[in-house]
TrEMBL record:
UniProt protein name: AAA family ATPase
Domain of life: Bacteria
The Rad50/SbcC-type AAA domain, residue ranges: 6-240
Provenance organism: Poseidonibacter ostreae
Gene3D superfamilies: P-loop containing nucleotide triphosphate hydrolases
UniProt keyword annotations, A-Z: Coiled coil
Length: 789
């Protein structure tokens, strides 16, 4: 893999950045905080969608970017002579992820997880393997020698990916321990041989008892079936007795009903005769009162005519009064209409003026909003620069607290002569930021504030004038509505007056005499009681013909019902029913039923005993079957335990062989480079199978801790490069063509820096790109190509 170029938008400190990568020994230099390490964070992020530390969402977006701005990382690289491009972007407040993967500019995969899977499949390297193989920091190099032996072994095993074998070995030990515990637990619940024998004997005895009960059950079943057959025969005979009894009872009931009906009709016949005699007498009385009815009806018609005349008279008086009131309303409404018409004549001119003022207010509001947006941007820019100054001041305070003789917090190199230079550089950054950016932004902000305040004052003035005009418009519109309502009211009054005048002309033809009307009412009151009595007699006599017909029908019905009663009585006496034999048959049925139920109870008891024995047999057999299953499970676990023990032995042998292969390879590569860097002073670095480090000095082996700090730093560097080389060979990823080291110069002087660079030149044929990150500006002349940030 060779890196070609990278593009960043709103990624951490980079708002918009594009970088092309050259081949050879490449220096990435810049001051602390300039974003050197961020370049390689972006490379890792493009390939695997994660930063070195997984919690990235709260820090990934540039501080000056808004929620709407997209965070974008695009990396183009060459792999096995084919060009690939991976693009990852995040959008919105939640930073929703999306990714695309191109091969020779053709889209082949989309989706964040899918792209990561394609990258791993292509390079044969996970994120951790990629980090351990191709990247190394000063802290990681220092840890190679300064950590305790056990911690150093863990670190190197993790770099080499051997901790997975350790994990599997620990897992096998735990599984073996769990299996032994389970086998012991199974042994405690298994049945002994004596218990198995006793349970089998119980099954034989229970089976014999079950056969005896089943034979007895067959005999009981035959007896029950015989009784059931006899019960059915008696039940059929009882049904015949019941049918005959019910038939006789039915005829008796019908005879009783007919007799009751005959008696009821006879009583009704007597009552109807009495009613006929009474009504004949009332008929004779009605004939003498017919003249009173005729007189009352004539008087009633006369009163109706007088009521009509009275209504006309009252209506005429009401209309006369209403016309007087309408005349007054007519004059008053006409005056009000003329007045409102005069008061609303300016309405059109005021409406036009109001619209012009509204348009002016909208334009002023838009100007104010635009100026406010510009103010907000300026305030954000000032805040961002203030934050940068605060961070720089914190760095100055940190360096002052550390002191002149302490190590740099970034590269671990002693400050010493660089102390004043670093402080002056940081202070100069603060002053320059204040002069070039903050003061200029504040001047622009003051100008925008003044411009906004002038527009706001003009807005208030126009708004007040608009309010005054609107108030006048509302008042005139209110009067205009009153004018329309009043005009409608005027026309309504006028129309109503004309209608009343026409109606009064029609009512002049009617004359009403109240004295005559009262005398007619008094006369009607005198005749009313006699008239109502005549009406009651007429109502009563309407029933006479109906009662006569009903009397005739009742007489015929009595004759018909008497005939039916005599015929039913003869049929009732003809039915032959023996109640004594019926009761004897019922007693016989009860005895047979009781015998059957006793036999069924005995049979059911036998079945319960059979089922109980069957359950006992099944319980015992289940216990024996479960014991067999548990024995089979124990044997499987014993077989698994044996397999685990074999795997553990094989794995231990594999670890021994792997260590014996890895350690010499690291030693060989590290020794070659160390000899070049030290100009042959030290010929060999040995890495033991337990990953302890030794340096040979004049043919004798010494622990790495014996040597000076500069020599240890050089040894750590070559060891780390050797580990990366070994990892590349082991993983089969020989197509990975670059390495990256962060602040590897450490405390080395200029001559050693040159020696380190020469050592890197020796491996250029194996790695087409070697990136060295440093905040030491003076080393930039030592590289074939330089990226200065």
């Amino acid at each position: 893999m060779i890196l070609l170029n990278i593009k960043l938008e709103n990624f951490k400190r980079y708002e918009n950045y594009y970088l092309e990568f050259q081949e050879g020994l490449i220096g990435i230099v810049g001051k602390n905080g300039s974003g050197k390490s961020t370049i390689f964070e972006a490379i890792l992020f493009a390939l695997y969608g994660e930063l070195k530390n997984k919690g990235y969402k709260e820090v990934i977006r540039n501080s000056n970017a808004s929620i709407k701005d997209v965070v974008l990382v695009e990396l183009e690289f060459e792999f096995e002579s084919i060009t690939y491009k991976v693009s990852r972007e995040f959008r919105g407040k939640a930073l929703s992820a999306n990714a695309k993967f191109y091969k020779e500019n053709e889209l082949i995969t989309t989706g964040a997880k899918e792209v990561t899977t394609s990258i791993v499949s292509l390079t044969k390297m996970s994120k951790d393997a990629f980090l351990h193989t191709l990247f190394a920091s000063q802290k990681e190099l220092t840890n190679l020698s300064t950590r305790k032996p056990e911690d150093r072994k863990k670190m190197i095993r993790k770099l080499l990916g051997l901790e997975k074998i350790d994990f599997i070995e620990d897992l096998l030990i735990k599984q073996s321990r769990d299996l032994k515990r389970e086998i012991t637990a199974f042994a405690e619940v298994l049945l002994a041989d004596d218990e198995v024998k006793v349970k089998k004997e119980h099954i034989e005895q229970y089976s014999k008892n079950k056969e005896d009960y089943e034979k007895e059950s067959i005999e009981k079943t035959k007896e029950v079936n015989s009784l059931k057959l006899e019960e059915v025969q008696i039940q059929e005979e009882l049904k015949q007795y019941i049918l005959i009894k019910e038939k006789k009872q039915n005829f008796a009931s019908q005879c009783e009903i007919l007799q009751n009906s005959i008696n009821s009709h006879i009583r009704n016949q007597s009552k109807l005769n009495e009613d006929v005699n009474t009504l004949v007498k009332r008929q004779e009385e009605l004939q003498g009162l017919q003249s009173i009815k005729e007189e009352y009806i004539s008087l009633h018609d006369s009163l109706k005519e007088q009521e009509s005349l009275k209504g006309h008279h009252i209506r005429k008086e009401g209309l006369t009064l209403e016309q007087t009131s309408l005349r007054e309303q007519y004059l008053k409404s006409k005056h009000k209409v003329d007045l409102l018409k005069e008061e609303t004549k300016e309405h059109k001119e005021l409406i036009q003026k109001e619209e012009e003022l509204e348009k002016q207010l909208v334009e002023l509001k838009q100007k104010i909003i635009a100026i406010q947006k510009e103010e907000k941007i300026l305030v954000q820019e000032i805040a961002g620069e203030d934050k940068l100054i605060a961070n720089t001041k914190n760095q100055i305070e940190t360096i002052k607290e550390l002191g002149r003789d302490s190590n740099c917090p970034t590269c671990t190199r002693p400050l010493r002569d660089e102390y004043d230079k670093v402080l002056d550089s940081l202070q100069s950054t603060i002053e320059q930021t204040k002069k070039d950016k903050i003061l200029k932004s504040k001047e622009e902000l003051e100008s925008k504030v003044k411009q906004r305040e002038e527009n706001e004052e003009l807005f208030k003035k126009v708004n007040h004038e608009h309010f005054t005009v609107s108030k006048k418009v509302n008042l005139i519109e209110s009067k205009k509505r009153d004018f329309i309502q009043e005009e409608e009211h005027f026309l309504k009054i006028k129309k109503h007056g004309i209608k009343n005048k026409e109606e009064l002309a029609k009512l002049e033809q009617y004359t009403y005499d109240s004295s005559f009307h009262k005398s007619q009412i008094e006369k009607q009151k005198e005749l009313k009681e006699k008239y109502e009595y005549v009406l009651s007699l007429e109502t009563m006599l309407v029933r006479l013909d109906k009662i006569k017909d009903e009397l005739k029908t009742t007489t015929l019905t009595i004759q018909d019902l008497s005939t039916k009663y005599n015929d039913l009585e003869l049929e009732y006496k003809a039915i032959d029913y023996d109640e004594v034999k019926h009761k004897e048959k019922e007693k016989q049925f009860a005895w047979v039923k009781r015998e059957k139920e006793e036999k069924i109870t005995a049979l059911n008891n036998l079945k319960v005993q059979i089922a109980t024995i069957q359950g006992q047999i099944q319980t015992i057999q289940q216990s024996l079957d479960d014991n067999e299953k548990q024995l089979a499970k124990v044997q499987i676990k014993k077989d698994d335990l044996g397999d685990y023990e074999k795997i553990k032995l094989s794995l231990a042998d594999f670890k021994t062989k792997l260590n014996a292969k890895i350690a010499p390879r690291i030693s060989s590569f590290a020794s070659s480079m160390y000899s070049i860097i030290t100009k042959g002073k030290y010929q060999h670095i040995e890495v033991s199978n337990d990953f302890d480090f030794y340096i040979y000095d004049e043919g004798k082996k010494y622990p790495i801790e014996r040597f000076s700090g500069g020599e240890i730093d050089l040894a750590n560097l070559v060891l780390r490069i050797a580990i990366s080389k070994t990892l590349t060979e082991l993983s089969g990823t020989s197509t990975i063509g670059f390495l990256a080291f962060d602040e590897v110069f450490g405390s080395q002087d200029e001559s050693r820096r040159i020696e380190i660079l020469e050592a890197f030149h020796t491996i250029k044929e194996q790695y087409r790109q070697i990136f060295l990150i440093s905040h030491e500006i003076e080393v930039k002349e030592m590289f074939e190509s330089i990226i200065e940030l």
